Amino acid sequence: MFFQEATPDTSGYMIAGYVIAFILMALYVVSIYVRNRNLHQDMSMLEEMDKSAQLAEEARMPKKSPVKSSNNNRSAKPVTKRSRQK
Amino acid sequence: MESKPLALKILDTVSILLLGIATYLALVYAPTELVMGDVQRVFYFHIGTAWTALLGFILAAVFSVIYLVTKDLKWDRLQVAAIEVSLIFFLITIVLGSIWARPAWNTWWTWDPRLTTAAITELIYIAYFMLRQGIDDPEKRARFGAVYALVGGLSAPITFFAIRLFRTIHPVVISGSNAAAQGSFHMTPRMLTAFFFALFAFTVIFIDLFWNRIRLGDLQEKVEQLKLKVTI
Q1: B132 assigned to some structural domain
Q2: Chain A residues inside the 8 Å CB shell of B100
Q3: What's the CA gap between B174 and B180, in Å, rounded?
Q4: What is the pLDDT, as a whole number, of residue B180?
Q5: Which of A4, B121, B146, B170 has minimal CB crowding within 10 Å?
Q6: Angle CA(B137)–CA(B142)–CA(B144) in degrees, nearest 5?
Q7: Do residues B73 and A43 touch, judged by C-beta distance below 8 A?
Q8: Within an 8 Å CB–CB cutoff, is residue B120 touching chain A?
């Protein structure tokens, strides 16, 4: 300790280290933000595309007649003797 | 559009506060080391980022095992998030170490066991993202990624123990010593306070970034699903 020189001035390295550390962290946070924003934009665009595609499909489909749909309805109750009497 | 949960907003704010306090403790509160001077102050962030990065790599290996068992893509997204945040933190560790080495060892870089294992770990995880980019099928990508992250996870403990197992010039500040080390120092109580606070702060920051990255992964998944629905 008695023969040691004065503490060297290495503050430049320290500043460089902290500046780079903060820049890297900030860049990462910005990258998360930008990716998030882009994904939200993609999401809303795709949702609109999906909606318009559904509307177009509904417009293209012919309207089903009530008679046909009742014939095709499998979930309807089966016809029994009792139901006929009613 | 889902808004951020309140807990995450609070965690974001707490992380920024903790980072500010950790910086204050490292730059102002902790005393200047007599032999190395101010450059020793990078040590607090160097260890804080290294600890969380290595923890993240090990977490990713654990998520890989869970994915391989359950085949649930949620674990794949957790694994990617852990690796991405850890990769950034470990890059900061390496850069800070290199900046410290210049005045302490008179060189920016040397192929010392610790530095070499750290560089290999960083490269392994950069390659992990390159591997994932090359695979289109989500399940195949997740399976390959899980196996890769599991094997890559071995590099984290090897890097940690490199200074305890091999003869190296890298100092062992916590729990141990190394005869060949250059740039060792003993921590005063104030240095210890700054050190442990930095460890705590970076752990919270890691959790915050990890949570944000998981949300991003979930959103990415939703967009992918919607894209498939629209194209079909």
Answers
A1: yes
A2: 13, 17
A3: 16
A4: 62
A5: A4
A6: 95
A7: no
A8: no
Looking up tokens 């050190």 gives B195
Rounded Cα distance between B53 and B93, Å, is: 9
Burial B194-224 (b: 16+ CB within 10 A, else e): bbebbbebbebbbebbbbbbbbbbebbbebe
B134 three-class SS:
coil
Identify how many contiguous H helices and E strands chain B contains and give both numbers: 7, 0
Q: What is the mean pLDDT of chain B?
A: 91
Pair B63, B82: CB distance under 8 Å? yes
Query: Who contacts B34 (Cβ-Cβ below 8 Å, separation ≥6)?
Result: A4, A7
Report how many domains make up chain B. 1
Do residue B100 and residue A17 have CB atoms under 8 angstroms apart? yes
Identify which of B37, B100, B212 has the shortest CB distance to residue A8. Answer: B37
- What CA–CA distance (Å, rounded) separates B65 from B68? 5
Q: What is the pTM of this model?
A: 0.85
Structure tokens at B151: 């094997």
Q: How many CB atoms lie within 10 A of CB B146?
A: 23
* Interface check B177 vs A, CB under 8 A: no
Quote the domain boundaries for residue B123: 56-94+111-167
